[in-house]
Fold this sequence. Notes:
A: Alpha-Beta Plaits, two-stranded antiparallel sheet, B: alpha/beta, Rossmann fold, 2 domains, 7 strands
Amino acid sequence: MSLRYISNVVTLEYDLAKCTGCGLCVDVCPHAIFALDGKREKAVLTDRDLCMECGACMRNCPFDAIHVRPGVGCAWAIMMSTFRGKAAPSCD
Amino acid sequence: MTKIFDRFLKQPKDVSCGGEEPSCGGDRAPADDGSADRLKRHPWTYGITNTPAGGVPIIAAKMSFADRIGTMRMRLGIGRTSYAVPPGLYGVGRPDRRSPVFVTANYKMSFDRLRQALDGFDGWILVLDTRGINVWCAAGKGTFGTEELVRRIESSGLAQIVSHRKLILPQLGAPGVAAHEITKRTKFRVLYGPIRAEDLPEYLRAGSKATPAMRKVTFSIRDRIILAPVELSGIVRHWLFLVLLGLWILRLIGVRFFSLDFPAILGAVLVGAVLVPAVLPWIPGRAFAWKGWLLGILLVFVIFIIKGSPSTVAGWAGALSYFLILPAISGFLAMNFTGSSPITSLSGVVKEMRTAVPLIALSTALGLVAMIVSAVLKA
């Protein structure tokens, strides 16, 4: 059994060079995609495909090391926004 | 057609949905500040404590009967649009200057989860105005966000009430809040607590330390099934469902327009909105629409095992319409469950919709043709 969604689609980008190892991304990711390396100097990206593009890591990274296009992973919102001609899907 | 959803991939936008609560409902109109309302009597407040920044209501940690009825109504999808508490600062237990501060959304169910978890603890609860939306959805929208938190810290006079400078936020609020910006602007330091309020006592006892398990979102069979009534209540109130139900009732009392197998349609609805969520991890494949389609096909086979295979051309055309329409219905509803799941990304949903939506439309259209052909041949 697995609760994995479609692979190789997410927009998550991580720049190791900018990372200072503060560990905030490790705290905020609800899928534990980030972990600190053995020496606790850098965060490492473990399982990128588990990302749901919530944007918590990017919003909380003080060093601009993470980029992701956050959005609604919700088919209904995407359909409704399409029909109403909205710029981005939202749950309203 | 297959590219129409792609435009959402181009624009960055701070919205998200799904997770903790069924789905993200629409916003209520924002109140001016709304915090004065919390000093009125509410069933869940039982006094006011005086602080250097004025009176702060003390709330009950235990749920009353009315609270439980309210939760049940939300779970059943009755009157979902307004279930909010007034934003602002509250106290639980006997809070003092050293008590921890917890931040939450003004969706009553979020607020209830938190106060229940804090039974036996002394603390402050800072409720943000998220327009009655839960933490996770509101964080995606940005209403559980940096700006609102800064505003509430200032308007509540929190800095005069507590001597420390720490705030405990639910981890699922992180998509809306930049912790380092809060520190820069208010001197308060943000600690992300556990995802589930139930883990707060253990988190507090461990000295504000969350275990890896507390930081991971789960989507257990219980989590998935508890969402089914809300999904279903949305479907059965849809005009299309009501029209089909009406036609079926007319048929039962003898008014026949055309043959319509309403129980089979209801079966496809239950497969897509209840069975797929329940057995989600065990269905092969990744795309939700595919999972729904697959179980929909199984449903059609079950129907024909019960009914027996058709013997006439009209019968075969009718059977074909079952294969084209029922899996399309369950696939469509399963696809909509992406919004309730905490595992789907926007990129992934757009990718699956690009294939699924045209196929569902085509399959339904061909199925309707087969239905008409079957009816004509029978006549």
